[in-house]
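Before a colleague's protein record goes any further, I have to sign it off. What it holds is a sequence and that sequence's fold in token form. Would you go through it and say whether the fold makes sense for this chain? The record follows directly below this note.
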Amino acid sequence: MNAPIIDRFQGLYRELSADNLDLLDGVYSEDIAFTDPIHKVEGLASLKDYFRRMYENVAEIDFRFSDVCVADDRASLAWTMTLRHQRFRPREVLELPGASFIHFADRVHYHRDYFDLGAMIYERVPVLGTMVCAVKSRL
């Protein structure tokens, strides 16, 4: 059985948009430490600023969760993000697998995301994308 915070966490990412960042308050503690392949953020106010910048040009985003494992005050959640960005190849829909590792009490106080940044960004930049894909095909 999942802790209630796990259900709130998943619900947050199914609903979150640039217009409802106040939903973060119900899931994250004031002293949240958040890390992903792009940034490291400390504190709920900083996390809101980070998400505000990330979501401002998102046309569509959806998270599908799978393989949720909870042990005591920690959880790992595998997910697939479907994303369409208004400024970055606006007609393309990106599917990106990833995983979140969280520590929690009544709210999440540590959150670390893992995903392939190359698949998300570098492979979609002209010239650089061609080089990244060529390197990947040789490995």
